[in-house]
Amino acid sequence: MTSKTLTAVLLLASALAQADSPPFPSTYKPLPSEPTLIRNATILTGDGERLENADLYLENGKVAWVGSGDYADGSRIIDATGRWVTPGIIDVHSHLGVYPSPDVDAHSDGNEATAPVTAEVWSEHSVWPQDPGFGRALAGGITTLQILPGSANLFGGRSVTLKNVSAGTYQAMKFPNAPYGLKMACGENPKRVYGRRNSAPSNRMGNVAAYRSSWIKAQRYIEDWNDYERKVAEHEAKAGDSEGNAALAAALNKPPKRDLELETLAGVLKGDIIVHMHCYRADEMVTIMDMADEFGYQVGTFHHGVEAYKIADKLAENGVCGALWADWWGFKMEAYDGIQENIAIVDRPEGGCAIVHSDSDEGIQRLNQEATKAMTRGRAAGLSIPEERAIAWITSNAAKSLGVDAYTGTVAPGMMADVVIWNQNPFSVYAKADQVFIDGAQVYDRLDDALQPLSDFELGQLLEVTP
Fold it and tell me: Structure pTM?
């Protein structure tokens, strides 16, 4: 093999290695923890069980056992008599860090609204770890959250899943092994944003046409790279002769042009990136599912979906989650036909996947109460929804939506020890998170100021200055 060919082969190998090692990797490391036994609690496991007067043991950052078992001498023991334990709460729709507090123009980093298709942007590159909202959410029991771009665009960019820990960089908050999401939006938002600029799309049919054109480009991008890699493989097989060397060198010198936008879309078509789609109306959600069938990808979750109750059967049949509000409606035309039983109806036993989300730096602080509203309205409509089922709306179903249900979302042996101890039934309006653990480390205590984190930004502004 000639030196030129060898160099080209090495360059290709390097490019493929980089593709397997994505940029901006997670540097998250669990905080040090001590073996902890939580005793005599009512435990909602997140997977449908309710255990009364039960014990839970956390060790080495994991749930060691639930119910009963052995524990190490010297373990910390917490008497949780009269209190409740749940998995850490998960918010699948947050803009903390990209629209941080204080709410000023300088902090508005959630929408790259310069074009209807901006699949190339990544929300993590806007996340400000000093956002005081992270600490406020922690006080509400939030241990994991997905940070999404805004909804101005048809394709708004990649989302990122974070562990809710104090850190100086977003990389140190990134949930290890969590798949990326792609934020998409249908309906009024993109057609309004770009229609007002006298550009496309300016209506709903323009929205769909632009989606389809983008997916076609992504399909071609995949085909071009597959064709390139096939040619390289063919020529490598016969590279022992001069003709093969020349052919290999020629193939290697003509790779497809790398395109960040199409890389993200291709990731969806390959099943590596999960679609999270802002969509309100039932008819539009069905159109989107039909489009997904056309291009061979899976819609992971419809967000907001105030009309999801109208197509709850179709969502279940297609394995699509609905991340929904308990009672937001009516603030624009596509949000007009909402009902407060929406979540309870989507949460059908036959494959339903209902989730309560916030989309709010305030609502995220009381996601348990939002779930209470939805449970109460469902019960009033005659549906049987015990607490052990409703807790899945903010734990295990949310983990499933984010593709991290193998790691968190349930209190079960081997899972991350992301746990909340509540002062009482978490579905009470009087409930407060007493203690919060992430990977077994206590990161919040309602009664201990030393375990109520403040961001560096707050410390810099709130420290009292002595003359």
Answer: 0.93
